[in-house]
């Protein structure tokens, strides 16, 4: 196995003061909702640790939720490898804060507290691919054909290009100090697939128009964006259908419970 060398940043903060999923789950925080018998945050952190490619995990969450998060993650038995840090007002600001507070953390992978379906194998695949990346940053995506072949009910937002559709796995990597500068593109909240007009604010009108024409291939478009922000970014296509299915809505929560429940039933058989 390749030596562990990545730090994982788990972005677990909520958006706003009221979260319908947290209320429906009877918990104080969206990341604490139950997924097939375990809190979602525990499943996310476990997937990162189970990859065998991560030496340390930084969990960014609101200060008022830190103690509860510590209790939720305690059963993983990885206290010395898990660090808690306060989140900022936006995704971009949170990433920048983490990079500043932990300058030795690069190279860093970034995941989110609602990636309940990610597994150690999926995270390992991403990290193994990163070993060969020469760019400053990378993002994980799964082809639409892969997702829809297994989960047509997943209702993902796809980026459409000449070589097909892709959906973000909410899995990113900052590989060089220059990559930290790219975090600013998430200050508007990211989720460019669900709200592609955010590309205008992040990259400019021309980038948005190129995106909408669907005349370029994925890698070509990323090269264009890389020039726009001055940070070379590589795509990592992840062949796991569950990769882009995060838990943002009730329908996602129901789907995640079913998938994880079936997965664990097969494992126990």
TrEMBL record:
It holds the Pfam family NTP_transf_3. The keyword Transferase applies. Keywords: Magnesium, Transferase. Gene3D superfamilies: Spore Coat Polysaccharide Biosynthesis Protein SpsA, Chain A. Residues 8-138 form the MobA-like NTP transferase domain. It comes from the Bacteria. This is NTP transferase domain-containing protein.
């Amino acid at each position: 196995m390749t030596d562990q060398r990545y730090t994982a940043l788990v972005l677990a903060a909520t958006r706003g003061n009221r979260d319908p999923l947290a209320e429906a789950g009877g918990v104080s925080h969206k990341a604490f909702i139950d997924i097939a018998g375990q809190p979602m945050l525990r499943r996310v952190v476990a997937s990162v640790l189970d990859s065998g490619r991560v030496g340390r995990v930084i969990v960014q969450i609101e200060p008022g939720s830190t103690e509860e998060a510590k209790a939720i993650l305690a059963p993983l038995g990885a206290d010395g490898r898990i660090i808690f840090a306060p989140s900022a007002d936006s995704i971009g600001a949170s990433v920048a804060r983490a990079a500043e507070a932990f300058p030795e953390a690069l190279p860093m992978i970034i995941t989110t507290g609602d990636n309940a379906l990610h597994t150690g194998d999926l995270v390992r695949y991403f990290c193994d691919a990163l070993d060969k990346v020469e760019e400053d940053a990378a993002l994980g995506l799964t082809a639409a054909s892969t997702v829809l072949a297994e989960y047509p009910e997943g209702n993902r937002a796809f980026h459409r290009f000449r070589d097909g559709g892709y959906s973000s796995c909410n899995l990113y990597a900052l590989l060089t100090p220059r990559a930290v500068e790219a975090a600013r593109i998430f200050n508007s909240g990211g989720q460019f697939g669900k709200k592609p007009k955010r590309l205008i604010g992040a990259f400019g009108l021309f980038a948005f128009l190129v995106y909408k024409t669907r005349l370029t291939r994925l890698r070509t478009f990323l090269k264009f964006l890389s020039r726009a922000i001055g940070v070379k970014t590589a795509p990592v296509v992840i062949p796991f259908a569950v990769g882009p299915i995060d838990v943002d809505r009730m329908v996602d929560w129901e789907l995640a419970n079913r998938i994880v429940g079936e997965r664990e039933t097969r494992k126990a058989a």
